[in-house]
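task queued by scheduler; priority normal; single chain, no ligands, no partner chains; default sampling; output format set to structure tokens
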Amino acid sequence: MRFLNNKYYNYVLALATFMLYSESLYARAGGGGGSGRGGLFSLFLKIILLPVFLIYYYIRNKKIKNKKLESTQIIEQAAAEDPFWNEAKMEQLTKDMFNSMQTAWMERDLSSVKHQISADLYHDYSIKLAVMQSNNEKNILEDINIKEVSIISSEDYKDDTKDAFVAYITGDILDYTINETTEKVIKNKKKDKETFSDTYHFIRQGNNWILNNINNKVSLSDIDDSKNIKE
């Protein structure tokens, strides 16, 4: 597929990526502002850019598949020496953490996940949630449907404190924001359900995986940059 390297295609792909993010800036755990667009506008974008989006998703899914295969090999090698590495448990942890983080974000209370996230992430989210609360904004997250979880990065070092992994998670969600005083919807007023693609970044602390970062604007370069390392 030689056209994939064409510089003009890359420009169009960049535009498609920009439109994809501008249409879906989520307020769910991870940041963003909540999408306010949907309906006819969303349909118009999808029709006009459909060929580019199809190519984009093809490339993205191929990259995810390749990274997952690399990561699975690393996990299998690591598990032979350290049973702490377990792909099925890592995937389940990601699903559980995703749901827990959405609940904590919606309730603007991180106490339920404090022991499962890093100090840096706790500090960052505490500030974001405090700003939302001062603005009387509450993000409502409902009807969550996780479609896929793939481990795309596994880093196993001789020094266990450096161990880490990244999970790519996709699905759809009903994500809107209300003014808590008036109870009026101020973002995503039509309550359109939206798709999401996030990466959850975990680090090792003893015999526990701790959530250290969330990225919900995942680019192709982010996928390319994910590491699979076995020392």
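post-processing summary
- The radius of gyration is 19 Å.
- Residues 31 and 216 are 7 Å apart (CA to CA).
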